Amino acid sequence: MLYHLLYEQFSEAVSAFNVFRYLTFRTVGGALTALLICFVAGPWVIRMLERRQIGQTIREDTPDRHQIKTGTPTMGGVLILLAVLTSTLLWAEWNNPYVWLVLGVTLAFGLLGFADDYLKAVRKQPDGVRALTKLFWQSLIAVAAAVVLFVLPGFDGEISVPLVKDFHPALGWLYVPLAVLFIVGFSNAVNLTDGLDGLAIGPTLITAAVVGIFAYVVGHRVIADYLEIKYVADSGTLAVFCAALVGSGLGFLWFNTYPASLFMGDTGSLALGGALSTVAVIIRQEVVLIVAGGLFIFEMFSVIVQVVSFKLRGRRVFAMAPIHHHFELRGWPEPQIIVRFWIVSVILALVALSLLKLR
Predict the structure, then answer these.
(1) Beta carbons of 87 and 103 less than 8 angstroms apart
(2) Cross-strand pairs, 158
(3) What percentage of the chain has pLDDT greater than the value 90?
(4) Which residues 6+ apart lie within 8 Å of 235 measured at CB?
(5) Residues 6 or more apart from 50 whose CB is under 8 A from it?
(6) How far out from the chain centre does Cα 77 lie?
(7) Domain ranges of the chain
(8) pTM over 0.85
(9) What's 34's DSSP letter?
(10) Can you name the residues that pair with 73 across neighbouring β-strands?
(11) Do the beta carbons of residue 280 and residue 212 sit within 8 Å?
């Protein structure tokens, strides 16, 4: 909005408004705005959730020491969504279809997570939305996003393969089911990681920073050509959205850090996973997201391995899954697990950034 209002309408009269034409300026503005919204609205959100007694319900299949978290305000993902949506609408170009596509997916996944949190926290139904029902709606949202992306003018159905020069195989319509699988899978991976105070939001904002850098590079023809990365026209503005994710993540972490006074719930985790994966699909950097967000993938596969092993062998591989609970039962203090997982996320982010140049 600020781009269209201040730059397009008033920059000739006020030369200072020319600064709004620069994507880097608006990216920083997006991050700071989202951060400020979280700082200002966060205490109000917590008080509102406390008044309505919307608190966390602890499942029985978690370590016993989690019982002390019962009643901690949840649905904090509403705060993240508020910050991300508001900041993006303020700083991004409204005539860019990618912006609306990503915002639509983020909001849709957030609403699905909100329904799940509502059933758990308000209706006191521990299972929330049934797994198959949730998977159906996730898939439907992802299908809609993939089809819309595929029919947009200029979309070629190609994928980007890191480490290989000028190799962008075209998948045609096969791109749609693969994109659906990727979006749904990554959304659930972030959701599974959200089990300790600050565990999910820390790696999320780190990963969002990496994806945002790639979005800026991929959307800049000169830089993309220099680095021999597939150029995707008009995708650079998604850097503003990713910056808003980073800013809102930092702001939410202020309240979510150990010991947490607010949990994001599925409202936040499903939305964040859907948002990051949709951006990666648009800029054709799915592999980069898999590397940068490798912690989420590891958490998801720890659950898959646990379930498959128990069904086939009658034995568990881990003391408990997702794997952060395994370390809890092995005696690691919660803050130690969180910080070490953040360190792993930073390492993976650096590896992902190295793919900018390695060809």
Answers:
(1) no
(2) 170
(3) 68
(4) 98, 215, 218, 219, 282, 283
(5) 73
(6) 11
(7) 2-293+346-354
(8) yes
(9) H
(10) 55
(11) no
